[in-house]
Fold this protein.
Amino acid sequence: MHKLHKRFLETPALALALAASAAASTAAYAQESGEDGAGLLEEVIVTASRREEQLQDVALAVSVINPQEFADAGLTGLSDILPFVPGVSVLDGGGTFFNPVYIRGINSVLSAGVTSYIDEIPFGSSTVYTNSFPLDGTLLDLQTLDVIKGPQGTLYGASAMGGILKFNTREPSLEEWTGSISADLSDTSGGGLNQLYRFNLNGPIATDTLGVSLTGFWEEKTGYIDNVVIPREEWDDYEYYGGSGSVRWAVTDKLDIKFLGMYLKSTQDGLAQVQANFAQDMLLPGIGAAEPWYGRYETGQGDVNPSTYEAELLGLTVKYDLGFGELTYAGSQQEMQFVQSQDLTIPFAEFADLFYPENAPHTSAIFVGDLGFDKDTHELRLVSESNKKFEWILGAYYTKEDGHNVQRLDTTPAEPDFFFANFPSTYKETSLYATGTWYFNDNLDASVGMRYADYSNDVVLEAVGPLVAPLPLSEIEDDVTNFLFNLRYRAGDNTSYYARVASGYRPGGANFLILDPEGNQLSSPFYEPDTLWSYEFGVKGSSADGRFNYDLAAFYIDWEDYIVNLTVGSVTVASNADKAVSRGIEAAFGYALTDALTVTSTISYTNAELGSDEPAVGGRDGEQLPGTPQWQAVVDFDYRFDMGTLPSYVGASWRWKDDMPVGFPGYTASDGTFYMGSNPRVDLDSYSLVDLRGGFSVGDFDFSLYVTNLFDEDAWTNFQSSFTSASLGTPARPRTYGAVVRWNFR
């Protein structure tokens, strides 16, 4: 019979397993209930350091998530799940794609600062010209989702400055067939019926030799935003479907080959965003700061804003046991395309009046964008056997990425020469890396790692119209070396300490060249690469009886030339700020009050701020960086019991997010010069979300009930402020009731 153990999050503390924990506990082990009621500990193995290790022994902060457990509670995307991880913030853009992830204040607004991996394969763009946001693969059939925090430049390369999201798909079984089919039906207040159907099938084609794993999903969500201008109810409806498949061939006891394929597609008529003022009476009189123009769940966009997101991946992983180590090749071919229309009548209709007065007034301006990339990756890695004396890793990596970014503005009356830009790019990178670990004794070891990368970033801008100037072909070449230093000490069976120093970087590139009405240049044609150094100390431990565990970490990050988005004439370009720092603490605790009741909690403090005055963005030294709240906290309760003969559970979670700024307020320098923020400063209020869940099992069937946002909290989960057009805010999804039925078969 399928065992019902609700285990939402297993993270890196030593010994307590928190079965059924919906919060971000940091347990290194899962807890199973024995016949005597005592907690039996199941070891959790991770590959964050490119070799298999017990989670308690990894000398960095790793959170291991089981996305299926979150899905049973109605939480199915990164913006739902990652807030349970301390030190991580997600800005929900109102869709299933392009939601920026911040880890310890390190952003991915323009150029990726948090990288996605599917098994051994990196997915996503390395430039600002296409897509900088992590992949959301939480609806695939995953064994775990690993959140690896801190710069991973030595082992994972460019853009892994903030950390890694590693989606570990379920390995094809060579021994037995298993699978499941599930249906999730829910209703959102102010919206309607939401549907999510999933299946997975896993098993041998030839026992002990050939196995296959298949998974697929289809989701349709009814929107909760109404357009009061067109008019149109449920403006933000969307359809999302996809899946993955893998074939594993155990050629011999030493040679293993795996083929992987993935496909995701999302279509949406409008994002779940509403128009709002950035300040009192700006731009709509009588409306206060961060207040919606039309209503809590109402927008006034003048036209439908359809969008389509599509991602594909084909991958090959070959592993060969050489005896003294394992040789791995991981290669991929991947594509992503995103097409969107957006109503930008304010302010671009006014700009059209300025440049084409003979056709004024222009009553609409619709932006149409088409961006994406084709990318090949190849990695060869040799990992020595684990001998607890001297261990090493050697690797080489190559990637080539061809990107496209085509944009235009369609006005009424039509002005074909108003704005058109085509921004093709090519990115190439070759890197070599090595890591060595010395064991001084059974309890003390140190690691040193280095990665050298040589990259080129070639771009050209074909532009038509008075707003943007063309750029000739720009060939940018650079090289960078990243370093890693680890010290790890095991004070006993239940306590370990680590200290970690690591660096990371993101590539530089060319920019949009923005002009004012007189033809003067307003933006730099290039932006520089940014780099950082991170210093971290952590301790992981548990009580002797395994009922209490803890995971504590403190960090300091020194960030140079960091890449920021700069809004010039309502067009966003890349720029560099001189210096920023991020410092903070993260703590996670778990306590098994009884054999049935567990409580988990996390709290994190992140102070990410400018390290100098920044005239370009209008921020003063010490100003809090946008997108990261200083404080976040989670508390979760989970109770397991037998309802008659049926294994059952109930649970509740509370997650709190502190006030969070967006934009910069501007400042007056010592000489009296005022530097305006490139985007207006808006301070978003703190908020709390409470979720409930419960369920039981009958034979091979699991039944779950849930309520998300129980108290229907009114909060902004994201806010894009603008001086010249309506600011766009994403309200938290209203109260949603749902039920999940799953058939598990074998």
User: Anything to note?
Assistant: The longest strand covers residues 390-412. The helical segments are 67-71, 78-81, 153-156, 345-355.
